[in-house]
Each structure stands twice: as structure tokens, then as C-alpha cells.
Amino acid sequence: MPAPDAAPRPARRSRRAAPDLRLVLGVLLVLGSVAGVVGILAGADRRVTVYAAASSLTPGERIDRGDLVERAVALDGADGLYLRRGDIPSAGLVVTQPVAKGQLLPTSAVGSTAGMRSTSIVLRLATRVSGAVVAGGTVDLWAAPKPGTVVGAVASATVGASGTDKTDAALAPAVQVPTVLVAGATVSKVLDASGSFAVDSAGSQVEVLVPRSRVARVLQAIADGDALALLPAGIPLGSADASPAGGGS
Fold first, then answer.
1. Nearest CA-CA partner of 71 in 53, 93, 95, 45
2. Nearest C-alpha neighbor of 121 from the set 227, 217, 233, 231
3. pLDDT at position 240, please?
4. For FRET with 140, which of 20, 66, 110, 164 sits at 20 to 30 Å CA-CA?
5. What are the tens digits of pLDDT across the range 76-95?
6. Tens digit of pLDDT for each residue in 148-167?
7. Burial of 39 by CB count in 10 Å (0-12 exposed, 13-18 middle, 19+ buried)?
8. Successive 10-residue mean pLDDT values, the chain, 249 residues
9. Residue 210 · residue 121 · CB < 8 Å
10. HEC states along the chain?
């Protein structure tokens, strides 16, 4: 007789090997070390992006972004002394000091292109500066010649009985009147406070930007000892001295 079928044996379950705890700890330590090194390097990297000259730059040369190259350097807090990304205006800059090729560009070696059309002059005024004269404001520069200053002579004419002009032998001197040296000058800095008792008897000192075409006239007025005054080109709307438009007394 055939032997009876044996009972089926249960299938063996595959055992999953338990992860080695030492291996897990080792991987975690490695990952932690890598993360720590990356963090230290990132914290220690204090480099900033500044500009350097792509070629030698000479004073008076106009430059823009295309004339410079970027450099990532560590300046240890001195990055404010150099031209950084975003510091170049759309009109460009003008070189004021020689800069060698590859040299980092100091902010002191460049200036605004407006300097090509105007320059800064410090003026000593005959009187205290008006409170309306502030940095950035627009003013007119007036000059009053010293008393007794004349501009040649003007002949006085009389009309005779026959209707013809007769010129006197004596020539009457023509005294100069105050004139506008510069219209629409820009105030750069007021060197003493308006109305302050610290202002000496000679008057205030104000730094203004004047067109280069007017520099000779201003320097001549200073050399002649003319009395200089700055008058605001406009009265602020909030000024108490401003009267309503069209108002009458």
C-alpha cells in the first residue's frame, strides 16, 4: 500500500538581519562631521563681491560696468572702502586717481560724472546764511562789489538849444550794482548752522556746486573782495514767510 501522504511542512519564514547598530552610529557620525565642517566653512567665508579694474584706468576717464571685473574677496570689514556690486549708476563714473589693472577699485578713486560739468567751491558769505539754504537746495549766488568800485566812466550828456547832444568834459563814474554770478547753484554742505552765534562776523561758509563755465567769474569776485550772498531759488511751500498766491494786503 502506498504510504499515506505526509503532512505538509510549514514554509520557513525568512529572517531579516537586524541592522548593525555600530554601522548606523558610524554613518551618523560621518554625516554630522561633514555637516559641521560645511557649517564652519560657510560661517568663516566672509567674502564680498567688489569691483577691480579690467585694465589700467587714468584720471578723467569715464567708466561703466563693462570696464570692471568682479572679485570675491575677504576684506575683514573694509568692504565699504571699495566699489561694490550695485554702486555704479547708469550714467557711469569718472576716474579721479590712477588705478592699475587688476587692482580693487577704491571708492575714493572714482567720482560722479556730474563733476565733469561742475565743481565744488567753498564760499565765505558776507552775512549769515538763510535758514532756507540747506544741503541739496538750489540757490543763486550774488556778488556785490566793494563801495567805490567803478566800471570805467560814463559821459553825462545834455541837450542844447539846437537839439544836439553836448557831452560834459567831466566824466561821471558808474558804480557797479549787485549781480548774479551763478543762477541755480546746488548747495553741497552748510559748514555752520544758520543763526548760530558760532558764526563769526565775516559770515557763514557754504560749499556749493557751480558749473565749470562760471568758476572763473566766482574766483574773480573772491579775488576782488566782493561781498557774496546766497539766496534760495525758491521758497518752501511750508515756509511761514510764503504768502498765498494771488493774495493781497
1. 53
2. 217
3. 47
4. 110
5. 777 778 888 888 888 888 88
6. 655 444 444 444 444 444 44
7. exposed
8. 56 61 79 74 70 87 89 79 85 86 90 78 89 86 78 43 46 68 88 51 81 90 92 63 45
9. yes
10. CCCCCCCCCCCCCCCCCCCCHHHHHHHHHHHHHHHHHHHHHHHHCCCEEEEEECCCECCCCEECHHHEEEEEECCCCCHHHECECCCCCCCCEEECCCECCCCECEHHHEEEHHHHCEEEEEEECCCCCCCCCCCCCEEEEEEECCCCCEEEEEEEEEECCCCCEEEEEEEEEEECCCEEEEEEEEEEEECCCCCCCCCCCCCCEEEEEEEHHHHHHHHHHHHCCCEEEEEECCCCCCCCCCCCCCCCC
What are the C-alpha distances in Å from 190 to residues 114, 124, 141, 205?
A: 20, 11, 14, 7
pLDDT score at 75: 75
Phi, psi of 141 (to 5 degrees): -95, 120
Task: Please report, as a single letter, which amino acid is at residue 14.
Answer: S
Domains in the chain with CATH codes: 48-115 (3.90.1210.10), 118-159+167-232 (no CATH)
Q: Are 230 and 133 in contact (CB under 8 A)?
A: yes
